[in-house]
């Protein structure tokens, strides 16, 4: 296997996949969580609660990585973004809506209600922006 070229990497990332965001604890130990993300070709964007533990960790140390992997049954492939995460106090309503429609079946009243609740409490959310210093891939 070899690194993906940009065209193959962008095609891989255009499919709906979870990312695994890794941040560092106070003692330097890594911890990882699955996340929804948007990749625009330049930056990875994530919305989250301002009180989330990942935000606390990123305020202490902005270094992070996000790994996106193949689905079960697909040939092995992955993309790893490495860099610092900016925590931005921006309205995340557009990103929340975009990602809900990407990751959920929005014909469900339950998912519509969750999105509406998130919109109603949008001031409790922040934007995490990872502008990669390094992108590695295989596939």
* CATH homologous superfamily annotation: Electron Transport, Fmn-binding Protein, Chain A
| Unreliable stretches | none
The name of the CATH topology is Pnp Oxidase, Chain A
Instruction: List the strand order in the largest sheet.
Output: 2-1-5-6-7-4-3
Residue share in helices?
Answer: 25-40%
Q: What's the story with the biggest beta sheet?
A: 7 strands, antiparallel
Assign an overall shape: globular
| Number of beta strands | 7
Treating each run of at least 4 consecutive H or I residues as one helix, how many helices? 4
CATH class: Mainly Beta
Using the CA coordinates, give the radius of gyration. Answer: 15 Å
Question: What separation lies between the terminal Cα atoms?
Answer: 6 Å
Which structural class is indicated by helix and strand composition? alpha+beta
Tally of individual domains = 1
CATH architecture: Roll
Round the mean pLDDT to the nearest integer and report it. 97
List SSEs in N-to-C order. Answer: HEEEEHEEHHE
Taken as a percent bin, the fraction of beta residues is: 35-45%
Describe what is shown at a glance.
The chain has helices at 6-14, 53-60, 93-103, 109-120; strands spanning 19-24, 30-35, 38-39, 44-49, 63-69, 78-88, 125-138. It has 139 residues and is α+β, with helices and mostly antiparallel strands.
Overall description:
The protein is α+β, with helices and mostly antiparallel strands and 139 residues long. The chain has a single domain, classed as Electron Transport, Fmn-binding Protein, Chain A (Pnp Oxidase, Chain A, Roll), CATH 2.30.110. Helices cover 29% and strands 37% of the residues. The protein has helices at 6-14, 53-60, 93-103, 109-120, and strands at residues 19-24, 30-35, 38-39, 44-49, 63-69, 78-88, 125-138. The protein has a seven-stranded antiparallel β-sheet. Strand 1 (19-24) and strand 2 (30-35) form a beta hairpin. The chain is globular, with a radius of gyration of 15 Å. The model has no long low-confidence stretch (mean pLDDT 97).
């Amino acid at each position: 296997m070899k690194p993906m070229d940009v065209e193959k990497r962008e095609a891989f990332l255009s499919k709906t996949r979870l990312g695994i965001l890794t941040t560092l604890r106070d003692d330097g130990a890594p911890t990882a969580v699955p996340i929804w993300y948007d990749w625009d070709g330049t930056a990875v964007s994530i919305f989250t609660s301002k009180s989330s533990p990942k935000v606390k960790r990123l305020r202490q140390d902005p270094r992070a990585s996000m790994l996106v992997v193949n689905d079960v049954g697909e040939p092995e492939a992955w993309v790893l973004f490495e860099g610092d995460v900016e925590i931005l106090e921006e309205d995340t309503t557009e990103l929340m809506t975009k990602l809900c429609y990407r990751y959920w079946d929005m014909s469900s009243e339950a998912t519509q209600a969750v999105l509406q609740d998130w919109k109603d409490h949008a001031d409790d959310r922040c934007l995490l922006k990872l502008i990669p210093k390094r992108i590695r891939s295989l596939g």
